[in-house]
Design goal:
homodimer; 437 residues; alpha/beta; Rossmann fold; Dihydrodipicolinate Reductase, domain 2; Alpha-Beta Plaits; 3 domains; nine-stranded mixed sheet; six-stranded parallel sheet; 35% helix; elongated; NADP (chains A, B); methionine biosynthesis (chains A, B); threonine biosynthesis (chains A, B)
Chain lengths: 437, 437
């Protein structure tokens, strides 16, 4: 607590996009308030951007702008990295850490690929690395996993951690529209990028799953360890069938400890309407945690957007500034457990599989045979819900056949679906959605 | 990070009730795992109880038991206080702090009454005080307010922070039973104490409101600053009327910043069924936070119970043990803002007021006159919902009259309700429930 030195704590900001701009605003507009909370003044000493002329925010003084991120980082106590991507972000962060600065980042792609090296570099140098904004935007989920639950045993984490896909699925559910229309709507409203691939194919959620799995299980998990299924094959007919069963379809990042090891995955899943995650609408995110002693926990809020994400970034900056004012340190990220990674088909699951078929005599028999040949037991078959004109491959002739399995091996299931898809009477893309209880 | 000394960090536990017992279990059963997370072993050096012969938990070694809490506390690095109440808990904590130990407590009553003295003593001595379990049990809400949101401006916090009252209201809602029956059911199932006063009159929630208000607004707020309304007057008829409007009744701890100052209150409120807090069932707790940049956040989980509360306690213990291993410190609790406290009637609100009446000619006119005389504008009057045999004062003769006001001054509203209650045709207790949007 002894602190004679009252010089301002120097903060460098790398990147002034949507989040960077709002981060600068909070740091500048609330500087007196933040100084009171820290017990020492804090000063934004520079903002590094590629093109200073593009920055027009009234709260960013022109004189703070620079194109030399490395030089700026070298004269700061805390470096905030909001440029995104792997390089040059990784080099900037490592250089800042080596020079003794603590770092705050929202860069999920970087952490999911090189997190352990960064965590280890920070621990070695005796500086901190904070990244609350990298998962779930404004929602405190990193700090609960690093600190609040550190006395407990995390069993599983299930998160709606991508706002774009949740918005699309929620629009399809509430408005009965198809995937393409919902995606265009999301793009028009700014909830989806012009190139939405990383979101709709689940790669963004996979990065967050890797980060959460490492924190939950103290084991080195990277994005390449996370199998991914996206939502592009989900139709209005799938949503209608789910609704008829009082279920909703959500894209989930699921991290869990099983008998076969730990697993981190991203897949669309059917959830009962009564599940707390089922009520997460629009672009909101939520993370549901099961722990041995704490039991069920849920964290809910805005998973993206400039101001919400900046709230998490500045929370980290102030936390770190307090450490600096107290000559103190935050927790290191211990990766000691080396738990095995469960093979893809280690756990059995139930699946809802939807085919589009031409309804000729013998079709159902042929399809059922592909399942029974592989010893996959069928729980229910349903042809009541019709495809709609919102769905790709729609024609009045095509029927929707939905098969819900009992627990089965995933690899075998995918093999059966592939075999069925090759039958003459089957058309279009099948969808495979996991059924959770 | 330099740490030559690898002697175990000594932890003393004061109290071995439901939470204390589970805390000891987690510390003992997970000791290897926790040592890995801390980077140094941690040892439970003693458990202080009034009657050692009453402790039969297999994970608590007999030799650790003592009746001398003060002596035990004097030989620990971290003292966990789980005995509850004001004294001797306060003296034990202050003595531990003075002797240089950091402390972890779940004692909401003590913190709501003497928190600022304890926070200041800890800051002065350069030790930490953690109390995640004091609000919301297993739910991380203290740490988010102290750290995650420290870069943001909290506008309001609305919490379902008492499991007993939420269980009672939820049973009344889902089963259509009356208050008395729901309370007996809660007692039978262990969700309510034999003497349920502190819960149903809202005092438990008020203590939590005071703690949250201090953290959110950096201002000295104590339990005596928190006006309280309980739920004992709420009838099955009130619940039925709410359901007919697609609303639910919840007992809320509400902490907010208004133009007139800050306020912390506990009251029953009508919430739309679509509000995230409306879906919090049974004895679960949830806290809904609005912040300037983060926007809406919600935290949900088990607000009570031995193991869930112990999860939060041990999370704090491990966090503090990491600080000790790093010669480091957690954040102090800055109380710098001295914001004014809003007077009771500073903000106008809408209310649903329910009277039990003998339906004679002129009754409605007489009642309406008491409102109009005080310039309280009425938004709706409803006599459709009948009282039920579940409700006190029920007889076939008695009707339920429900008046929903426009925004009005609360003191004037209470005056009108008092005047109406004295009319001849009015019987039983009225209920006054705030209408939130």
């Amino acid at each position: 607590m002894s602190e004679n030195n009252n010089r301002p704590i120097r903060v460098a900001l790398l990147g002034a996009g949507t989040v960077g701009s709002q981060t600068a605003r909070l740091l500048v507009e609330q500087s007196d308030e933040l100084a009171s909370r820290i017990g020492r003044p804090m000063e934004l000493v520079g903002v590094a951007v590629l093109d200073p002329s593009s920055v027009t925010d009234p709260w960013i003084e022109r004189s703070l702008l620079t194109t030399d991120a490395a030089e700026l980082a070298s004269r700061a106590d805390i470096v905030i990295e909001l440029i995104g991507g792997i390089e040059p972000a990784r080099t900037f962060l490592l250089t800042a850490i080596e020079s003794g600065a603590s770092v705050v980042t929202a860069n999920k792609a970087l952490l999911a690929k090189h997190g352990p090296e960064l965590y280890e570099a920070a621990a070695r140098q005796g500086v901190d690395i904070y990244f609350e904004a990298a998962v779930g935007g404004a929602i405190p989920i990193v700090r609960p996993l690093r600190e609040s639950l550190v006395g407990d045993k995390v069993l599983s984490v299930m998160g709606i951690v991508n706002g774009t896909t949740n918005y699309i699925l929620d629009e399809m559910t509430t408005k009965g529209i198809g995937f393409d229309e919902a995606l265009r709507d999301a793009q028009a409203k700014g909830f989806a990028e012009a190139d939405p691939t990383a979101d709709i194919e689940g790669h963004d959620a996979a990065a967050k799953a890797a980060i959460m799995a490492l924190l939950a299980f103290h084991t080195d998990v990277r994005i390449d360890d996370v199998p991914v299924e996206g939502i592009a094959h989900i139709t209005a007919g799938d949503i209608a069938a789910a609704s008829a069963e009082h279920k909703v379809i959500k894209l989930l990042a699921v991290v869990e400890q099983t008998d076969a090891g730990i697993s981190a995955r991203v897949y669309p899943a059917l959830l009962d309407e009564t599940h707390p995650l089922a009520t997460v609408h629009g672009s909101f995110n939520a993370v549901f945690v099961k722990a041995e002693a704490a039991d069920d926990l849920m964290f809910y809020g805005r998973g993206a957007g400039g101001a919400p994400t900046a709230s998490a970034v500045v929370g980290d900056v102030v936390t770190e500034a307090r450490h600096i004012a107290q000559h103190s340190l935050g927790p290191v990220i211990p990766i000691y457990a080396n738990l095995p990674k469960a093979p893809l088909n280690a756990s059995k699951a139930a699946f809802a599989v939807r085919f589009l078929i031409h309804d000729r005599p013998g079709v159902l028999t042929a399809i059922a045979k592909e399942f029974s040949d592989r010893e996959i037991s069928i729980n229910g078959v349903n042809q009541d819900i019709k495809p709609t004109q919102h769905d790709p491959g729609y024609s009045g002739e095509v029927q929707q056949l939905r098969i819900v399995t009992h627990l089965c091996d995933e690899i075998t299931l995918r093999d059966a679906v592939k075999a069925v898809s090759q039958l003459d009477a089957v058309t279009g893309d099948a969808s495979i959605i996991r059924v959770l209880n």
